[in-house]
Structures are given as C-alpha cells and as structure tokens.
UniProtKB/TrEMBL annotation:
This is Purple acid phosphatase. It comes from Citrus sinensis (Sweet orange). It comes from the Eukaryota. Residues 47-165 form the Purple acid phosphatase Fn3-like domain. GO terms for cellular component: extracellular region. Residues 1-23 form the signal peptide.
Length: 401
C-alpha cells in the first residue's frame, strides 16, 4: 500500500471576508448601453484582428492583436469583442423592454477603450490592442465604437476570428463525489447529444484506462428569470457534461482526458489532466482545505475593467495555482464570478480557474450573485443575480450543497 502519512489533522483556512450578501458592484459589461447602439459605419475607418485562427497548438486560450483606425477619433472610443461574430440586430426577443431600433441584442463578451495601449489614439486615430481570448464555442468579431459606452455608435466591424475547434471539450472541473471514493468531472463543449457521445478516459497514473460515460445538460434563454440574463447578457452556454469516476483507490494518482465520440467514428480529445484521490475515511492524514467566497474573475489583458473591479481575483487565482501542491480541496462558498446575468463570463471564469479545478476538487455553492431574484424563492428578494436566478452556475461545477 501507499505510505500513510501519520501527521496530525491540520486544516488551512484561507478565509475571504464573509460578505456574501452586501456587495452591489456592477458587472463592468452593464456599463455599456448596448441596446442603444446605432450603426454609423464609416468607410474610412477600419478594425482588423490577426491571426484569424487561434489555438493552432491545441490550446484553449490565445492572444491576438487588433488594429484600428478612425478618421474621427474621440476619447470615448472603445472596442467591443463579440461572440458569435454575427452579432446582428435582427433578432431581439420581444420581451426586451428597451425596444427602439436599431439596436444590438447582445452585449460584447468584453471591451476596452481604444486609447488603452495607444495614448496617441485621440490625435492620430490609430491604435492597436493585444487581447486574450478563450475558446468558448463560437467565432469572434471586433467592433470599433465611438460616442462612449452610453450612446455607442458602430464605426467599423472586423474580420472574423475562430479557434481551430470551437466545439472542443474544455475547462474540466473536479468535485468530490457523494461517497469518499468517487470524483466527478464536469466540462463544457459544443457537442450536443445528437452529435457525439461524451465520456471520460481515465485510470491510475501509468495504469490501465477505463471509460466512463458522461451526462449532458444545457439551459435556454427561457430559464433565465429576467434582464440582462434573458436579454443582452444571454449567450448560448453550450453543453455541460459530467462524468463519474468511481471506486477510486485511496490516495492514488489518476490521469484523465475528456472525450467525444462523433457519430461518424471520429474522436475529439482534450489534453490530459491528473488528480489525487481522497484518503479513506478515518485515515490519519493531513488534508489542506481552502475556503473562500466572493472571488470573481478578471481579464489578464486588462479589458472589462471598471473601477478596479475584481482585479484581485487574478492574484488569488495565481496564488492558488502556485500553492496547488499543498491544496487537497477548494470550497468556493458563493459569489463565484459575478457574471450578474452576462452568461459569457461563466466560460471565462471556468477558464481562469482551470489549473486549480482540473487538479483538485473545486466545490461551489450559490451566493446572492448567483441566486437572488425577486419572486423566485431566493432567500433575499433582490436582483443581485442579474436574472440568472441560480441556473447558469451549473456551468461552474457540481454543488456541495
Ligand atoms: C482613454 O479613454 C478613457 C475613456 O474615455 C478616458 O477616461 C481616459 O482619460 C483616456 N486616456 C487617455 C490617455 O487619453
Ligand atoms: C449567427 O450564425 C449562427 C450560425 O451560423 C446562426 O445559427 C445564428 O442564427 C446567426 N445569428 C444571427 C443573429 O444572425
Ligand atoms: C467526422 O465529422 C467531423 C466533424 O464534422 C469531421 O471533422 C471528420 O473529418 C469526420 N470524420 C470522418 C471519418 O468522416
Ligand atoms: C496583483 O497582481 C498585479 C499584477 O501582477 C500586481 O501588480 C499587484 O501588486 C498584485 N497585488 C497584490 C495585492 O499582490
């Protein structure tokens, strides 16, 4: 058997401030009145993005450069990143209460001011921006807006950019199962059950492989309780798969890969990940537990920035990744990513925590920013979930409550 480490039980608590219920910071994207955007295309303006294919080495996050030029630059000019790229104004749901066309029905997935890394933009009209994108099932386009965030005008629209396989299985997150020797793995892909069979290939490190089937869930716009989740913040969540890895040997190292078998026989694979199985019940062992709430997300390229909103979440994430060897399980006890009704942010959050959640169980619970919405049975009847009312957080992980 593996060595039993006879060390007294120690618990390392990293406690964030337990202020789950009183923060009212806005989602940065909510600062954009996208529903008021009008088209004012200018033939002498341009915006272009390169490269147009991302993830050539199979990676699910990549950098690109956006270059733009406007004959009438002004201080409030900004760049919006849209995904899918065809962010057309043609299909605004009737329930959108703010209807005065023309209007855009989808918020960008992120944005940045045109002068961010080009301070001379205001005088020259020329600028460029480095952005990091993650694979989130669709292509991207970049739009140069003028006239600020509150009355935006579309000046130019870029070429389209895509990852090599937008549907690829991505961002695995582990959760301790209902019994001690079970681990669940949840991930996201663009493959529904009519296209492919999802499964996990796994086994003890260096040993035989086992194949376990996975379930597939998704949710629609109609299961959102209000705006912006049901209006400009809506984005197709893709498919969320969960597989169950059972009868794990205590303390053993396992490796796993996510797979999809397309019905024409082709296999699509993720990269390989690993985790350590839990100790057996009562085992004399040191278990180091991290517990926090309120982490949020942020963009490494500096976009979506508003009043230093959640900058620190990148520091926290980086620190956890550095300490991963000394962490056995993480509890993120609510207020997970503050998507607040902008569904695209959930993908970005699962990408941010991937190095942690793919390696140790990442257990979550709902906070007010995932759950609260008037008249939906939430403990507080306020609007902190931005209309999500608890559904999109299934994109993050399995629950522990
Ligand atoms: C860049 O644009 C923002 C937003 O309009 C503005 O607040 C800021 O002062 C500008 N920075 C420079 C260097 O012009
Ligand atoms: C964008 O393209 C997708 C895929 O081709 C299509 O399903 C969708 O209806 C289009 N959306 C709009 C608003 O045109
Ligand atoms: C199966 O379908 C995928 C996706 O459409 C395609 O890339 C692949 O080449 C197909 N494989 C075969 C053997 O036809
Ligand atoms: C957080 O990270 C940023 C960027 O690396 C760094 O400048 C800043 O000092 C860090 N903040 C803290 C509190 O460590």
């Amino acid at each position: 058997m593996r060595e039993l480490r006879s060390i007294c039980l120690g618990i390392l608590l990293v406690l964030g401030a337990f202020r789950l219920t009183i923060s009212h910071e806005d989602q940065p994207l909510s600062k954009i009145a996208i529903h008021k955007a009008v088209f004012a295309l200018d033939d002498n303006a341009y915006i272009k993005a390169s490269p147009s294919i991302l993830g050539m080495k199979g990676q699910n996050s990549d950098w690109l450069t956006v270059e733009y030029n406007s004959p009438n630059p002004s201080v409030g000019d900004w760049i919006g990143v849209f995904s899918p790229s065809n962010f057309s104004s043609s299909t605004c749901p009737a329930e959108n209460p703010r209807v005065y066309p023309p209007l855009l029905c989808s918020a960008p997935i992120k944005f940045q001011y045109a002068n961010y890394s080009s301070p001379q933009y205001k005088s020259t009209g020329k600028g460029s921006l480095k952005l990091q994108l993650i694979n989130q099932r669709s292509d991207f386009s970049f739009v140069l807006f003028t006239n600020g965030l509150l009355n935006p005008k579309v000046v130019a629209v870029s070429n389209k950019v895509t990852f090599t396989n937008p549907n690829a299985p991505v961002y695995p997150r582990l959760a301790q199962g209902k019994v001690w020797n079970e681990m669940t793995v949840t991930w996201t892909s663009g493959y529904g059950i009519n296209e492919a069979e999802p499964f996990v290939e796994w086994g003890p490190k260096g040993g035989d492989r086992t194949y376990s089937p996975a379930g597939t869930l998704t949710f629609g716009r109609g299961s959102m309780c209000g705006a912006p989740a049901r209006t400009v913040g809506w984005r197709d969540p893709g498919y969320i798969h969960t597989g169950f890895l059972r009868e794990l040997w205590p303390n053993a190292m396992y490796t796993y890969k996510l797979g999809h078998r397309l019905f024409n026989g082709t296999y699509i694979w993720s990269s390989e990940y690993q985790f350590k199985a839990s100790p057996y019940p009562g085992q004399d062992s040191l278990q180091q537990v991290i517990i926090f709430g309120d982490m949020g997300k942020d963009e490494a390229d500096g976009s979506n920035e508003y009043n230093n909103f959640q900058r620190g979440s990148l520091n926290t994430t980086r620190q956890l990744i550095q300490d991963l060897k000394n962490i056995d399980i993480v509890f993120h006890i609510g207020d997970i990513c503050y998507a607040n009704g902008y569904i695209s942010q959930w993908d970005q959050f699962t990408a941010q925590i991937e190095p942690i959640a793919s390696t140790v169980p990442y257990m979550i619970a709902s906070g007010n920013h995932e759950r609260d919405w008037p008249g939906t049975g939430s403990f507080y009847g306020n609007m902190d979930s931005g209309g999500e009312c608890g559904t999109p957080r299934t994109m993050a992980c399995s629950d522990f409550v």
